Automatic annotation (TrEMBL):
<dbReference type="InterPro" id="IPR006674">
    <property type="entry name" value="HD_domain"/>
</dbReference>
<protein>
    <submittedName>
        <fullName>Metal dependent phosphohydrolase</fullName>
    </submittedName>
</protein>
<feature type="domain" description="HD">
    <location>
        <begin position="4"/>
        <end position="102"/>
    </location>
</feature>
<keyword id="KW-0378">Hydrolase</keyword>
<dbReference type="GO" id="GO:0016787">
    <property type="term" value="F:hydrolase activity"/>
</dbReference>
<dbReference type="Pfam" id="PF01966">
    <property type="entry name" value="HD"/>
</dbReference>
<dbReference type="InterPro" id="IPR003607">
    <property type="entry name" value="HD/PDEase_dom"/>
</dbReference>
Amino acid sequence: MPHYEDHIERVKKLATFIAKREGANVKIVEKAAELHDIARNEENHALKSAEIARRILEKEGYEKEFIEAVCHCIEAHSFSSGVEPKTLEAKVLSDADKLDAIGAIGVARAFMFAGERGRSIEETLKHFEEKLLKLKDFLYTKTAKELAEERHEFLLQFYKQILKELSEVQNVFKA
């Protein structure tokens, strides 16, 4: 299974868990999780994914209210989309997606993505600084904040360790 599909499955499981603990509509959250990255390689993928999801859900005969709820979740899930989640379900999906970007899985995903794009370690660490290390501060639900503590701590320790090792290598070569 490609890592994209793995990501979808992990986000769906996290979102379902959070939804149940927080009292959100599980059906909306699960469908939104399944479709949230359908346009992952597009610019502003959250908005494009919502457009595609709307067409899919209409074709499958879902009710308008359900479709709009799912599409709002998708539009608002991305850290960089600029759409603020207005519903509990949208907050749940946003949190689940962010949780999958931190911790050991987040580190692995960051470096897999870097490898696909030909980015260096230093460029990937810049992504940590600009986004990944900030994600826990943008979580909405109590459940997600609890889950994020250990994941964020691992991410931070990894980041510090890799900076230390890079610094050591640079100092050895200077000597």
